[in-house]
Write a structure and sequence with these properties.
About 35% of the residues lie in helices and about 20% in strands. It is an alpha/beta fold. The protein starts with a strand and ends with a strand.
């Protein structure tokens, strides 16, 4: 008898990888996809890794597939931008063993710099896209996706989103299906994408797409549920669940395979219903394709194109109804709670210094992006992973070397490994003066403390060779490299002034482990403030443990970790360790 468990969508994807014979898994962490790989590592039969970035993760996956192993590669939607070169390039050659890309979109941008619809990448690469609607389908679609990959000789995208990845539902657990490693496929006429070969594979890719279109018409992934024909709903993914709750009596065409689309099945469904809505989250991809066939449906003219959908949005859009007292948005004013760096975070001292020196700061993606907000207010830009160094050099290109003496790039250790190294090479190669500060807190903190090549540990906690940032910078050609304790703000300020004035590129490495790491030695006894003068200097570091009322500062003992950064700010020696 098979057991049923309540699983997160991401847990179910991991379980599917185990049950359906995946033996290689690679990923770069990114919300909302991170838990896929964190759960896969629990299965000893799967060789699992955190890769330096998503492109490398997919390259590992492509190699494993060609070598004969069923493979899953996981990332968030913006990570697919990084991996896009590899995806587009493997599309024509195809695969050997099954290759599945689990990509999690983030509608409403809960933890992302943009909204992005991964289906566009699938269409551009001409690879099929599967979209599960609950955790059971998350698991099942892994197996189906691997079969499609091997049957049609193509990588397959499993498109998730925040609600699917992070919601729980019942999943039936099955035994592992044994999968024998396929023979290594030495086939240069397939896998060498030199123009002469790639031109032939372009034809194969189009033939494959026609076969997938025929498959889309017959597969049980695309199911029709006829009930009342007054309203028909064409939908996919989580939008199916929202729609069913609001319109249980309507007829449905649920698209588990959302690319390529089943034209005949869709046409028949539309002609069978009086009024048909296309309810899809984010972009009107299904809607526009249907309309291009000359068929009439209602879509984004009533369904929002921005943000997550929910039941109330669909109810208001389709039925023009609202439930009293229920809205999709908060209507009451609540106190503003700006996001802040954690108490004891080592980034705080760095950005206090940068703000004090009034430098131009080219920032990057990580916890430290929060330094852009008051009171630290010390980051000018943050665009995408690894961009800070190249952008700071762009400042210099545009405004000259004197401007660069008032500019620094800041980047976390994991992000530097991800895609910052090439930016630093560019600075040296093109004779820039840019000063780069690597904020080394020994983890990928923002996504939940995953290891990376700079930490010296693998995903399973095994010891590995750690990237030596000093040696790496030297190898790139940086001659000025200084390492400093991030909480020694006096020394840090001296170094920043010295390096920004230098007539050559430089690297400053600020070191302190993330205060939330289990092995962090930072947490000490909380501090207290005696005889406060009310100057508010300690408020400039934005520590959530310090508040100000009745003309004096106070320290909340339950938040203070005793990092003592505030003692270096206070000119009156009013902040002390408790006896």
């Amino acid at each position: 008898m098979h057991m049923k468990h309540i699983l997160l969508g991401n847990e179910a994807v991991a379980r599917g990888a185990f049950e359906y014979g995946v033996t290689v898994a690679s990923a770069y962490p990114g919300t909302p996809s991170t838990e896929i790989t964190e759960n896969i590592k629990k299965y000893e039969s799967i060789n699992t890794e955190w890769s330096p970035n998503e492109k490398v993760a997919l390259e590992v996956g492509i190699g494993a597939s060609i070598a004969g192993a069923r493979t899953i590669v996981s990332m968030k939607h913006v990570g697919l931008n990084v991996a896009a070169d590899a995806l587009m390039s493997i599309s024509y050659p195809g695969v050997n063993a099954g290759l599945l890309l689990a990509v999690a979109d983030d509608p409403s941008q809960h933890s992302s710099q943009n909204e992005q619809d991964t289906r566009y990448f699938g269409m551009a690469a001409k690879v099929p896209i599967l979209e599960p609607s609950d955790s059971q389908e998350c698991k099942d679609f892994v197996g189906i996706g691997l079969e499609i990959s091997e049957t049609f000789d193509t990588p397959v995208i499993l498109r998730l989103n925040t609600r699917i990845s992070h919601s729980q539902s019942m999943v039936e657990l099955l035994d592992q299906v044994p999968f024998q490693l396929k023979e290594y496929d030495k086939n240069p006429n397939k896998y060498i994408v030199a123009p002469a070969v790639a031109k032939k594979r372009r034809v194969v890719a189009e033939e494959r797409l026609r076969k997938l279109e025929a498959f889309a018409e017959t597969t049980e992934l695309n199911t029709v549920e006829y009930q009342s024909r007054d309203i028909g709903i064409i939908t996919n993914g989580i939008a199916y669940q929202y729609s069913k709750e609001v319109l249980p009596e309507a007829s449905y065409l649920k698209l588990g395979l959302s690319y390529p689309l089943p034209r005949k099945k869709i046409t028949e469904f539309i002609r069978s219903c009086k009024t048909v809505y296309v309810i899809e989250e984010l972009e009107p991809i299904i809607e526009e394709k249907i309309k291009s066939w000359g068929l009439s449906v209602i879509g984004k003219d009533v369904i929002p194109v921005i943000g997550e959908l929910n039941q109330e949005i669909i109810r208001a859009a389709v039925l023009k109804e609202r439930i009293d007292g229920v809205t999709s948005e908060l209507t009451k004013d609540i106190p503003v709670r700006p996001p802040v760096l954690c108490p004891g975070c080592h980034h705080r001292g760095v950005f206090y210094v940068l703000n004090k020196l009034k430098l131009h700061v080219s920032g990057d993606i990580g916890c430290y992006t929060l330094a852009a907000f008051a009171p630290l207010s010390s980051m000018d830009t943050s665009i995408c992973m690894g961009a800070s160094i190249g952008m700071a050099f762009g400042f210099e290109k545009a405004r000259g070397k004197e401007f660069s003496k008032r500019t620094v790039a800041v980047i976390g250790d994991s992000t530097f490994v991800h895609s910052g190294i090439t930016g630093l090479i560019d600075v040296v190669y093109n004779q820039g003066n840019t000063t780069v500060i690597i904020l080394d807190n020994s983890t990928t903190a923002m996504t939940g403390h995953q290891d990376h090549p700079g930490t010296g540990c693998t995903i399973r906690g095994e010891k590995s060779q750690a990237v030596d940032f000093v040696a790496l910078a030297k190898a790139i050609g940086i001659k000025r490299i200084q390492t400093v304790d991030a909480h020694d703000i006096t020394e840090l300020e001296r170094i920043v002034i010295e390096e920004t004035q230098a007539e050559e590129p430089s690297v400053i490495i600020t070191k302190r482990p993330c205060v939330l790491l289990k092995n962090s030695s930072l947490i000490h006894k909380p501090l207290s403030i005696k005889e406060c003068k009310g100057c508010k200097a300690c408020m400039k570091i934005g520590c959530p443990a310090i508040s100000f009322s009745h003309s004096r500062a106070e320290i909340k003992k339950e938040l203070c970790v005793g990092c003592e950064l505030c003692t270096r700010i206070c000119k009156f020696d009013a902040i002390k360790k408790e006896a």
